[in-house]
């Protein structure tokens, strides 16, 4: 069973603060790492797909980095806004036994306080 | 249109009922997925369809029966469910399949069906 760990489980930040959270995954059979943003009662929305060690991706105030050798990815949010409140899921795409599957972490629930 | 739709949004059923969940996408994706998510747990893969054929079944009990009638539709037929099957059921689609995906392929998710089994 593959383990994808996300920390912290939840956090509260003030509007305007910057924050970051972590996704840890097995470093073997790595294929890709996905980040999703999931607002309550909506569909999970894809943020980034990261494939190469050292990858850095950016989308507005949100950015992510990837270290496949040590098996972790960081998601950063600069100047948090209330609309950033959501659960951020990472998912590890691995290759094995002739198929590729996404294994999700439990997510980090972010609440931004106005 | 990058939307995956799921109906119904909520479903309450008894253990003897038969019901179906529906999922639809019009992005031309050839892979479609069912995931199950219990409270405070990550989504777990149930089934993958690739080109309308079942390619992955993650040892799901036979009381869950998937069907892919065409490339845009995915159903999940439910029969004789147990209360522990209560969960959020998410559908997703992607360009390529679980057997040979592109590294950068993204799965697009629907909002889910919240199922309660009494």
Note down, in words, how this protein is organized.
The complex is a heterodimer of chains A (114) and B (118). Chain A has 114 residues and is mostly beta strands. Chain A has no helices and 11 strands. In chain A, strands 2, 4, 5, 9, 10 and 11 form a 6-stranded mixed beta sheet that branches. A 5-stranded antiparallel beta sheet of chain A has the order 1-3-8-7-6, with no helix packed on it. Chain B is mainly β. In chain B, the strands form 2 sheets. In chain B, strands 2, 4, 5, 6, 9, 10 and 11 form a 7-stranded mixed beta sheet that branches. A 4-stranded antiparallel beta sheet of chain B has the order 1-3-8-7, with no helix packed on it. In chain B, strand 7 and strand 8 form a beta hairpin. Chains A and B meet through strand 4, strand 5 and strand 10 of A and strand 5 and strand 10 of B.
Q: Roughly how many Å is the radius of gyration of chain A?
A: 14 Å
Structural class of chain A: mainly beta
Greatest interface by residues involved: A-B, 25 and 26 residues
Can you count the beta strands of chain B?
11
Rg from Cα of chain B? 14 Å
Low-pLDDT segments, ≥5 res of chain B: none
- Major beta sheet summary of chain A: 6 strands, mixed
The proportion of strand residues of chain B reads over 45%
Uncertain parts of chain A: none
Cα separation of the termini of chain A: 40 Å
DSSP strand content of chain A: over 45%
Taken from the alpha-carbon principal axes, the silhouette of chain A is globular
Counting H and I runs of at least 4 residues, what is the number of helices of chain A?
Answer: 0
Overall geometry of chain B:
globular
The string of secondary-structure elements of chain A, in order, is: EEEEEEEEEEE
Average the pLDDT over all residues of chain A and give the rounded result.
93
Q: Helical segment tally of chain B?
A: 0
Oligomer kind: heterodimer
The major pleated sheet of chain B works out as: 7 strands, mixed
What order do the helices and strands of chain B follow? EEEEEEEEEEE
Helical content of chain A stands at under 10%
């Amino acid at each position: 069973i593959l383990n994808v760990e996300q920390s912290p489980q939840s956090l509260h930040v003030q509007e305007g603060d910057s924050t970051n959270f972590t996704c840890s995954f097995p470093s073997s059979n790595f294929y890709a790492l996905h980040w999703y943003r999931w607002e309550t009662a909506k569909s999970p929305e894809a943020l980034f797909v990261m494939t190469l060690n050292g990858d850095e991706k950016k989308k507005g105030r949100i950015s992510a980095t990837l270290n496949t050798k040590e098996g972790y990815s960081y998601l950063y949010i600069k100047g948090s806004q209330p609309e950033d409140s959501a659960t951020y899921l990472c998912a590890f795409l691995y290759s094995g036994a002739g198929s590729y599957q996404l294994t999700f972490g439990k997510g980090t629930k972010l609440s931004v306080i106005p | 249109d990058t939307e995956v739709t799921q109906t119904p949004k909520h479903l309450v059923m008894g253990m003897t009922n038969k019901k179906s969940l529906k999922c639809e996408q019009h992005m031309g994706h050839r892979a479609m997925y069912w995931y199950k998510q219990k409270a405070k747990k990550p989504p777990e893969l149930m089934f993958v369809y690739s080109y309308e054929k079942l390619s992955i079944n993650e040892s799901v009990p036979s009381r869950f029966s998937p069907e892919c009638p065409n490339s845009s539709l995915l159903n999940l037929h439910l029969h004789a469910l147990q209360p522990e099957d209560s969960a959020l059921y998410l559908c997703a689609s992607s360009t390529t399949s679980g057997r040979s995906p592109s590294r950068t392929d993204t799965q697009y998710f629907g909002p889910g069906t919240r199922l309660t089994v009494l």
